[in-house]
Every structure is written in structure tokens, then in C-alpha cells.
Amino acid sequence: MKTLILSLITVLAFSCQNTAQNANSKKQQDITTAKPIEVPMENGLAKAYFASGCFWCVEAIYEHVNGVTEVYNGYSGGHTKNPTYQSSNTGRTGHAEAVEVIYNPKIVSFKTLVDIYFASQNVTQVNGQGNDRGSQYRSILFYQNDAQKQIITSKKTALATQLDVKIAAEVYPFQKFWLGEDYHQDYEKRHPENGYIQNVSVPRLNRFKAKMPSVLKK
């Protein structure tokens, strides 16, 4: 009987040791496979997606940010395939004018891009910015993983508490970005004489520059 008891104790001890080792291994695996905040591209850059009124304005804002290498105008957040400028303007596609921001996460973080997002708009305006009104101009922050979602929701909640207002921006899981027409790309750079650029886009950009000068390209 004594031998049997000792054998059982040995088996139980070995089982507990294996369980502990397996738990530690699982914990280490979870840490190793945890998704980063940034969603890297093959060249070490990363992508982020935002909608905040006219994409000409948002493109110009992010292109002035240090660490941002390129910004593309397009459409996202809707339910139809291959949206166009004309179809999205009907408000029936569900898409909003959006931007794809290509950035270097070693220079500018996703957290900072979200801060820039909120600092460059009227955070309380629903379905638009300024006189650009309609669901195609609504504000949306798109997240690509749980870490990004947590950053967005935390900053949105904190801002709402700080300003004592309801923040209009919606928070969506990113699904697809539809690249906009060629003539919409780099619009402010290519059309500085345009009345909308001079009277809406540039003043909005300058308001942002005054708020966050430290993030601008030199």
C-alpha cells in the first residue's frame, strides 16, 4: 500500500509539473503571437484608415505629418462594391470619403494618428464637416485589430469626458478601402487655385497646424 501511495504521489506531481509547464508555454505563445498595434506592410511601413469629411482636406492634413509617406483618397465603410465619387455622393452606398495613410511607425505611431484625427475636425458634427454634409462625409475611425480598437475607443471616451460633448465619429472594423479616382489624388497640391481648396481645405489645415505643430514635417 505504501508503495502504491508513493507511486500515486509521483504521478500527481509529474502531472502538475506538466500542467504548469504547458500553461507557461501557452502564456509565452500568446505573448509571442499577440498582434501589434501597427499593421505593417512588407517594407516596414504601416497603413491606417480614417474618414472625416471631404477627403481632399484629410489628405492634406495627414500629408503634412512627419512620418507619413503617402495618403490616398478613396471610399470605405459601405456595403457596395466598386464605389465611385458619383455613387458615394448619393448616400446610398453606405461609403464615406476616406483616406489610406501610409506611415512609418518608427516615426509616428497609430496613437498619434488618432490624436491628429480628432484635432483636425469638428468632433461633434454628425454626417459631415462644415458645409460638406451627408453620410458620405461622416467621420469614421477604422481599426484593424483589437489594440487599435482599444486606442480609438479610449481616446474617444476621454475626449468626450474632457469636452463634455458627444463625439460624432463612428468606430468600424476595417474591411476594404476602395481607391478613389486619379483626379482626386494629391488634389490640394495639384489645384492650389481651386476655390474650395483656398476657402475650406487650407483654413482647416492651418487650424490643425496651430493645434499640433510638433507633429508637422520640417
How is this structure best described in words?
There is one protein chain. The strands form two sheets. Strands 7-6-1-3-2-8 form a six-stranded mixed β-sheet, with helices on one face. The chain has a two-stranded antiparallel sheet with strand order 4-5. The protein is globular, with a radius of gyration of 24 Å. Helices cover 43% and strands 18% of the residues. Residues 1-34 have low confidence and may be disordered. The chain starts with a helix and ends in a 7-residue tail after the last helix. It has helices spanning 2-33, 55-63, 85-88, 110-119, 146-163, 187-190, 195-211; strands at residues 46-52, 68-76, 96-103, 128-129, 132-133, 139-143, 170-173, 178-179. The longest helix is centred in the first third of the chain and has 32 residues, at 2-33. Helix 4 packs parallel to helix 5 (146-163).
